[in-house]
């Protein structure tokens, strides 16, 4: 040993050793930086290329000045009009507005700040993140606990949920697998998961197969003429690449620099962002989403406002068809985006339908960002990903623990807070196009749009139809079921066997039947009775053994997480869908769902052809191979409640789907609704009466307590006088 | 009527054999309890006729007690439907402070008033919702109920009232002391006197919590008010505020003294005849207090107090040992002196 060390340490040998180590490291570095990305792209069948945008054009200085004048005037006019009262006559008001607009201090205050910066730096072309990062390479972040730190801006955004759809594992997540384990908890092996039980776009988390699609529609109005339409997840996610951030799914590797150049800063930061620039374009490499990279948009850059957030988020809140969805009025200069007529939540945030929006509050007033990480709060069922899991977003932050101040019955109303979430009373209904049951397997021809669309079997915004009330402690299951329990520790409250697994309301059942009869005209194979049963009683699709296993898993794995913490009654939007499932990977809560190819689906309505097309995507094929099984799918299935690991039997054999069946997921998903807040809450008797909206027995109250809650003398006493309404917005 | 009815129930309480309190249950309850049951029966008949409710005449006293207890329980249940809601509160329009109206169901059940009907203290108009804005004057006055001599207490309610009226809480003209009443310290919905035998440290903590609920600034990190006190935190953990802040000579623990008149003489406690024994250690059982001697005082007090366990025998022994040491040293010195002198001569 000693002799060996001596030889090693002779100057000549030491030099050799040093060189070997250096070369070794260099080789590793080159492998990681050059070979790995190429190998990875080949493996998942994705490609990257420099992204160019037609509207990213240089302008002349004169054009900049003209644009600056126009933008400054319009922004000052809007600000002045908001200040000058409506009381004056039209002419007097105009004079006042103009005086204010041209006041020096007002001009300084209300002119878009970047006009001056761009002029001084002589920036005449907007080239995406490159332009922004010239000045904003790093940003100062103020954290919720008072700390401040300086972060690399590009890193910050690339590692946010908005870009990569997932968050780094560890702590704070509230999602539990049906096997009883917390998903991506500290100490477990984190797997890449973001959203759960997606009601929008393509079922399942297959943003790869539906990132960007051009659909040939044949609308009535054009008399058979083909009109290209845009569709896909990429319309709302900020990466401008040909696919989502696939590289971020892996434990190593990073998104290539060319892809980072596709990040759309302005959709979140520019007040003049033109949603008409948001459509699918095709280039030599493939399909991707266009974005607004004009100087006009760049000049009005600033902090994100509600308008920016709603460019995308009104889609999942109010819905595409929502009357006040501004982004849905600007569908694209060409290849217009397809609207989804059924709403995911039907729970809009707009001055017309939400008291906070009407008061001029910005999204970021409650969802206070830390750099590019935006908190969603500690409660949530349908999203595993959470950039800031420990940051609270709640009503009481502003409204205190005693929010009711005007009503004579304020104390009594405040008393309810311990058991009842604010939303329970202050969201009275959802939009009527809120989708509850959606059949992807039997599409319907939409003559106006000229495409086949999934058939919404049941839509409703009404209480106990489109949404219902569940105990919720902030925990959710892997398929978006709210967990919680009556604080009395009830063993009767059983949402996964009752509220979320069965539709008893005769009106809904009748509506579903009517729709099934209608569908039978197009699809003669449908057995109406069986169809209605599967849609309204999804557990009927399980064998008795599977039902037993489900019962056991609920008791052994989930009961404890239902009893965690403090539960309150929250409203939850209900959702279930019929999709194609890979029956080889089935458990008591459902099976692996298979994605659809948008273009095939919309154009032909041939759903099996659409599935076949989609699952030929290399990433789905990889999913059915051993490395992915070991890397994430075994873990995924365990959370999903499927024992025995992921079965890699690829369901497409010789061009035929094998062991694939159309099924309803074995329970409804429950999506939290928190917007569309009404200043006037519910009336006492809406809950405290024998036919009230709360089913106290189903919520785990004893028969005696339920009877007491249904017949409160207090409410009775008050009724003759004035109805005891919660006329209090705090 | 209110007073006698509540006393009736106290009487019933004492008559129950499964009472937890050993001292109380040891007390002969029968003659007084029987008297009270009689009163209670009479009252029951009275209230039944007054309310115009047909009640079958109860056959035995037990049934009457049960009925009355059940009535009170029903009344509490009705009120607690709202008042047990932990978030029952409103914001005071004058200062935006949140005013809590919620009661802790468990604490009420374990309090001295746990078996009363709410309307025993709160006017009958509170029986219906909505309630009046504020209670009528004198409505919630403790002395109104507790005016008579109560043998449960070492001294009468009238004495307590007199003590209170002398106390800094009553005479101070500080705006913070405005409207000071019994309820300011004793929440009637959770009040429960410390029982003999409870751990002293727990009693001290409970008592001091009452004081600190208003005087919270005293325990703020930079407060210097008690800096003169050696081992301040040890004192706070094992001595009640009132032990020093009431007159040392007389037992009057509602006569809260202003800071400048409060006890600052260490020897009041740290001596072999400590006033602490008469105050804080009243919560020790009589047996424990009666114990004499060094070991008994050191061990059974739960907390060793310097000086409290002083033993004259030990003092004498120490003196003797010290004297002997001095003598020994002197003898040694003399011995050496003599030896040296003898050597020189030789």
TrEMBL record, chain A:
<keyword id="KW-0732">Signal</keyword>
<dbReference type="InterPro" id="IPR036280">
    <property type="entry name" value="Multihaem_cyt_sf"/>
</dbReference>
<protein>
    <recommendedName>
        <fullName>Cytochrome c family protein</fullName>
    </recommendedName>
</protein>
<dbReference type="InterPro" id="IPR051829">
    <property type="entry name" value="Multiheme_Cytochr_ET"/>
</dbReference>
TrEMBL record, chain B:
<dbReference type="Pfam" id="PF09699">
    <property type="entry name" value="Paired_CXXCH_1"/>
</dbReference>
<keyword id="KW-1133">Transmembrane helix</keyword>
<keyword id="KW-0472">Membrane</keyword>
<dbReference type="InterPro" id="IPR036280">
    <property type="entry name" value="Multihaem_cyt_sf"/>
</dbReference>
<protein>
    <recommendedName>
        <fullName>Doubled CXXCH motif domain-containing protein</fullName>
    </recommendedName>
</protein>
<feature type="transmembrane region" description="Helical">
    <location>
        <begin position="317"/>
        <end position="339"/>
    </location>
</feature>
<feature type="region of interest" description="Disordered">
    <location>
        <begin position="1"/>
        <end position="29"/>
    </location>
</feature>
<keyword id="KW-0812">Transmembrane</keyword>
<dbReference type="InterPro" id="IPR051829">
    <property type="entry name" value="Multiheme_Cytochr_ET"/>
</dbReference>
<dbReference type="InterPro" id="IPR010177">
    <property type="entry name" value="Paired_CXXCH_1"/>
</dbReference>
<keyword id="KW-0732">Signal</keyword>
<feature type="domain" description="Doubled CXXCH motif">
    <location>
        <begin position="177"/>
        <end position="218"/>
    </location>
</feature>
């Amino acid at each position: 040993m000693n002799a060996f060390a001596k030889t090693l340490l002779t100057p000549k040998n030491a030099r050799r050793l040093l060189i070997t180590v250096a070369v070794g490291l260099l080789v590793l570095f080159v492998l990681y930086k050059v070979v790995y990305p190429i190998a990875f792209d080949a493996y998942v069948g994705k490609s990257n290329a420099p992204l160019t945008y037609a509207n990213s054009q240089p302008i002349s200085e004169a054009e900049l000045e003209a644009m600056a004048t126009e933008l400054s005037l319009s922004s000052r006019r809007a600000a002045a009009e908001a200040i000058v009262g409506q009381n004056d006559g039209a002419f007097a008001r105009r004079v006042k507005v103009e005086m204010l607009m041209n006041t020096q201090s007002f001009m300084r205050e209300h002119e878009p700040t970047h006009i001056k910066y761009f002029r001084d730096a002589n920036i005449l072309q907007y080239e995406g993140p490159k332009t922004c990062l010239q000045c904003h390479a790093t940003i100062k972040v103020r954290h919720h606990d008072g700390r401040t730190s300086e972060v690399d801006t590009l890193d910050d955004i690339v590692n946010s949920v908005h870009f990569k759809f997932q968050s780094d594992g560890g702590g704070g997540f509230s999602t539990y697998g049906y096997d009883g384990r917390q998903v991506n908890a500290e100490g477990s092996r984190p797997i890449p998961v973001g959203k759960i039980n997606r009601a929008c776009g393509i079922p399942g988390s297959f943003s790869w197969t539906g990132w960007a699609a051009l659909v040939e529609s044949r609308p009535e109005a054009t008399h058979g003429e083909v009109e290209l339409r845009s569709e896909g997840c990429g319309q709302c996610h900020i990466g401008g690449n040909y696919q989502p951030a696939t590289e971020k799914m892996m434990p190593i590797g990073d998104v290539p620099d060319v892809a980072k150049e596709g990040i759309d800063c302005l959709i979140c930061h520019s007040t003049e962002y033109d949603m008409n620039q948001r459509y699918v374009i095709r280039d030599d490499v493939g399909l991707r989403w266009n974005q607004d990279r004009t100087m006009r948009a760049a000049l009005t850059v600033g902090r994100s406002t509600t308008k920016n957030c709603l460019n995308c988020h009104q889609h999942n809140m109010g819905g595409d068809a929502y009357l006040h969805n501004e982004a849905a009025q600007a569908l694209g200069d060409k290849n217009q985006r397809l609207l989804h007529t059924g709403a995911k939540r039907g729970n809009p945030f707009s001055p017309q339908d939400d008291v906070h929006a009407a008061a001029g509050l910005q999204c970021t007033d409650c969802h206070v960002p830390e750099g590019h990480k935006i908190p969603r709060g500690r409660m949530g069922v349908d999203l595993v990903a959470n950039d800031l899991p420990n940051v609270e977003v709640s009503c009481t932050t502003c409204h205190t623990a005693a929010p009711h101040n005007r009503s004579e019955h304020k104390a009594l109303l405040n008393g309810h807070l311990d058991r009842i979430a604010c939303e329970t009373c202050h969201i009275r209904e959802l939009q009527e196009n809120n989708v509850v049951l959606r059949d992807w397997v039997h599409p319907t021809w939409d003559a106006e749009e000229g495409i086949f669309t999934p058939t919404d079997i049941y839509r409703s915004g009404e209480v106990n139809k489109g949404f219902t009330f569940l105990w919720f402690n902030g925990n959710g299951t892997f398929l978006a079921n709210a967990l919680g329990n009556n604080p009395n520790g009830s063993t009767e409250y059983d949402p996964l066997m009752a509220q979320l697994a069965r539709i008893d309301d005769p009106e809904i059942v009748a509506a579903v039947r009517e729709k099934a009869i209608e569908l039978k005209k197009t699809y003669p194979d449908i057995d109406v009775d069986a169809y209605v049963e599967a849609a309204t009683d999804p557990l009927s699709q399980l064998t008795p053994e599977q039902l037993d296993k489900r019962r056991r898993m609920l008791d052994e794995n989930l009961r404890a997480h239902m009893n965690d913490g403090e539960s309150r009654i929250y409203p939850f939007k209900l959702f279930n869908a019929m999709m194609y499932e890979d029956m080889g990977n089935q458990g008591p809560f459902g099976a692996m769902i298979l994605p659809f190819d948008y273009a095939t689906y919309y154009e032909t309505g041939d759903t099996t052809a659409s599935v076949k097309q989609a699952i030929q995507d290399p990433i789905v094929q990889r999913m059915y191979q051993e490395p992915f099984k070991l890397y994430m799918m075994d873990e995924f299935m365990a959370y999903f409640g499927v024992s025995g690991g992921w079965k890699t039997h690829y369901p497409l054999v010789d061009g035929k789907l094998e062991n694939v069946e159309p099924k309803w997921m074995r329970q409804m998903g429950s999506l939290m609704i928190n917007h569309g807040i009404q200043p006037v809450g519910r009336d006492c008797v809406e809950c405290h009466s024998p036919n009230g909206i709360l089913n106290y027995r189903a919520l785990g109250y004893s028969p005696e307590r339920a009877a007491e809650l249904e017949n409160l003398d207090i409410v009775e006493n008050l009724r003759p006088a004035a109805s005891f309404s919660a006329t209090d917005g705090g | 009527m209110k007073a006698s009815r509540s006393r009736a129930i106290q009487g019933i309480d004492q008559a129950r054999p499964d009472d937890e309190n050993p001292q109380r249950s040891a007390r002969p309850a029968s003659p007084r309890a029987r008297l009270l049951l009689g009163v209670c029966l009479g009252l029951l008949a009275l209230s039944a006729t007054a309310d115009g409710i047909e009640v079958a005449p109860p056959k035995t006293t037990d049934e009457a007690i049960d009925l009355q207890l059940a009535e009170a329980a029903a009344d509490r249940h009705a009120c607690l439907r709202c008042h047990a809601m932990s978030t029952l509160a409103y914001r005071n329009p004058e200062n935006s402070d949140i005013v809590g109206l919620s009661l802790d169901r468990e604490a009420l059940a374990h309090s001295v008033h746990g078996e009363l009907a709410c309307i025993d203290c709160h006017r009958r108009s509170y029986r219906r919702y909505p309630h009046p804005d504020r209670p009528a004057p004198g409505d919630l006055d403790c002395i109104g109920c507790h005016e008579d001599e109560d043998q449960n207490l070492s001294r009468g309610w009238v004495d307590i009232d007199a003590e209170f009226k002398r106390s800094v809480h009553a005479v101070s003209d500080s705006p913070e002391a405005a409207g000071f009443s019994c309820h300011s310290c004793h929440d009637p919905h959770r009040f429960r006197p410390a029982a003999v035998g409870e751990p002293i440290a727990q009693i001290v903590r409970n008592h001091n919590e009452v004081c600190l609920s208003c005087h919270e600034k005293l325990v703020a990190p930079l407060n210097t008010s008690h800096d003169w006190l050696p081992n301040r935190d040890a004192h706070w953990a094992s001595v009640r505020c009132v032990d020093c802040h009431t007159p040392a000579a007389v037992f009057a623990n509602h006569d809260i003294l202003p800071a400048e008149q409060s006890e600052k003489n260490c020897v009041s406690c740290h001596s072999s005849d400590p006033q602490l024994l008469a105050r804080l250690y009243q919560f020790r059982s009589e047996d424990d207090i009666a114990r004499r001697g060094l070991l008994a005082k050191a061990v059974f007090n739960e907390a060793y107090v310097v000086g409290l366990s002083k033993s004259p025998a030990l003092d004498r022994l120490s003196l003797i040992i010290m004297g002997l040491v001095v003598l020994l040293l002197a003898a040694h010195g003399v011995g050496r002196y003599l030896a040296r002198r003898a050597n020189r001569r030789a």
